[in-house]
Design a protein that fits this description.
- The structure is a single chain.
- By secondary structure, the chain is an alpha+beta fold.
- It has helices at about 50-65, 110-115, 125-135, and strands at about 10-20, 25-30, 40, 45, 65-75, 80, 85-95, 105-110.
- It has a single domain, classed as Alpha-Beta Complex (Nucleoside Triphosphate Pyrophosphohydrolase).
- About 20% of the residues lie in helices and about 35% in strands.
- Strands 1, 2, 3, 4, 5, 6, 7 and 8 form an eight-stranded mixed β-sheet that branches.
- Strand 6 and strand 7 form a beta hairpin.
- Bound molecules: 8-OXO-2'-deoxyguanosine-5'-triphosphate (8DG).
- 8-OXO-2'-deoxyguanosine-5'-triphosphate binds near residues 13, 15, 41 and 86.
- InterPro entries: MutT-like, Nudix_hydrolase, NUDIX_hydrolase-like_dom_sf, NUDIX_hydrolase_CS, NUDIX_hydrolase_dom.
- One of its GO terms (molecular function) is hydrolase activity.
- It comes from Streptomyces hazeniae.
Length: about 150
């Protein structure tokens, strides 16, 4: 009997939690129509042969016109439909001011309290909650400043 082919692993979508002064950046999608107006982390699909960090740096350059250093993964991985899986990374700006050049019509630097009031893509919510738990202006026991 011929063995069944191994399942194809889902393609990774990377999103950046760009952090600065106790806030992180959210971007409002313009397409497709089903998700236009929802907030997300800037980013996109990892291309074959690309590392996740390199893909994020490329997407941030294309979408926002900035250079950024990608630092650490937010724990977790979240399916997007059947073929994609979402990974969120912490990142810091190294140059430029983010502009909504491509795929977005608005950007906002959010405090943790503000972040919880936006209409996010549903797959992003666990990472948003993680960020609101870990992003605090005063680091204390069990909390870290990111
Ligand atoms: N960029 C981004 N995509 C997300 C997030 N959350 C989430 O569910 N998605 C979904 C939306 C899309 O179905 C998919 C990413 O597609 P995309 O259109 O942003 O990817 P891309 O920039 O590489 O676009 P393309 O080359 O395929 O046209 O992942 C998020 O926080 N950021």
């Amino acid at each position: 009997m011929t063995p069944a082919p191994a399942p194809t692993p889902p393609r990774v979508v990377v999103g950046a939690a760009l952090c600065s002064h106790g806030r992180f950046l959210a971007a409002r999608r313009t397409s497709p129509a089903a998700v236009a107006g929802r907030w997300e982390f800037p980013g996109g699909k990892v291309e074959p042969g690309e590392t996740e960090q390199a893909a994020l740096a490329r997407e941030l350059r294309e979408e926002l016109g900035v250079e950024a250093t990608v630092t650490a993964r937010v724990p977790g991985a979240w399916p997007v439909g059947e073929d994609l899986v979402l990974h969120i990374w912490l990142a810091r700006l190294t140059s430029g001011t983010p502009q909504p050049l491509q795929d977005h019509d608005a950007l906002r630097w959010l405090t943790p309290a503000e972040a919880l009031t936006l209409s996010w893509l549903p797959q992003d919510l666990p990472a948003v909650h993680w960020l609101t738990e870990h992003q605090t202006s005063s680091a204390g026991p069990g909390r870290e400043r990111i």
